[in-house]
Design goal:
Chain lengths: ~160, ~160
DNA sequence: TGGGATATCATGGGGCACTATGGGCGTCAA
DNA sequence: TTGACGCCCATAGTGCCCCATGATATCCCA
């Protein structure tokens, strides 16, 4: 399968390196990504990592903003900002740069989270917090607890009922 | 028959492997699943396990959302981040990874529960508790009203033992 | 109808290959 | 020189392939 799935935590070694999970590396190869790009998530303390198509996704996102406003430019600067190119060494490890650490809060351990077409890098603690929140939101959606919002999503949400 | 039916408990061996019940394996084959997709249930300490169509359904559902809104992100976070592929070894066994154990509480034994188009994996004790509660709810439903809530409470109280 | 032969299953374990992880060393630039 | 970085190797741990065993179930034939 060629999708990034599941999540793992690995330790950063004394030199600041982390092994990218073997399964993820396999996906990278299967998808033919010759290079990995890491971009700062706009609204989360995480990095999005993927191939060149990841850049397209961000450009679409930014294109949603009014080009006459400062916002679009800020967004672009923020997430493209520094060199966000990740190089896999020959043992399949990447180096956790300050660019990554600053944005994610990563220090000793890294959580890799599959997201289908790309994956994310998190500080494990923050990931747990965010994950719990995301689950709570989904549960709410499913149970249609919030009368107003639920209405809007009702038709769609009936999906997962078995 | 090509539905997952009934339930079984099997032991995990010293290497962390469990045999998937032969009957389930037959269904897997009949349905042409080449890989198994496992997903952490949103509100239960269980894993849903099925073919790739299970994942496809989620992805199609996500595609209906605005990809840059939080709902889409939450959904992807759930079905990709909390999902994994299970590999059947050639003896029809799967390995109980920490990924599964953490969510389900599984340690020494696994309960396989048929659910029609997919099946579930539980820690046997928790399954028993949950089953009792489900039966209590059904009973309450059949008896028709909230007038019998007292009864339901009684049932729950008797069977909750965590 | 009973009893053995056969197939299938659950379970255990050996062993190889690969993965994660640590560390040595040279190179290049500040 | 020092520290960041790339390249290389060593080692323990894990996953996965393959085979062996005993228990059950199924079938066939006397």
């Amino acid at each position: 399968m060629d999708r990034f799935l599941s999540n793992t935590v690995s330790r950063i070694d004394a030199k600041g390196r982390v092994s990218v999970p073997a399964h993820f590396r396999a996906v990278v190869q299967k998808r033919g990504y010759s290079e990995l790009y890491a971009l700062r998530c706009l609204d989360l303390p995480a990095m999005d990592v993927g191939g060149l198509d990841l850049l397209d996704r961000y450009e679409q996102r930014i294109a949603q903003e009014d080009p006459f406003l400062q916002t679009a430019d800020d967004m672009s600067f923020f997430c493209h900002g520094d060199g966000a190119f990740l190089k896999l060494d020959q043992d399949g490890r990447i180096t956790m740069t300050d660019f990554i650490r600053e944005h994610t809060g990563i220090s000793a351990e890294v959580a890799f989270v599959g997201r289908g077409n790309f994956f994310q890098i998190w500080e494990p603690g923050r990931l747990a917090t965010y994950g719990a929140q995301a689950r709570a939101r989904l549960l709410q959606l499913r149970q249609g607890t919030k009368a107003h919002e639920a209405k809007a999503h009702e038709a769609k949400a009936g999906e997962r009922s078995e």
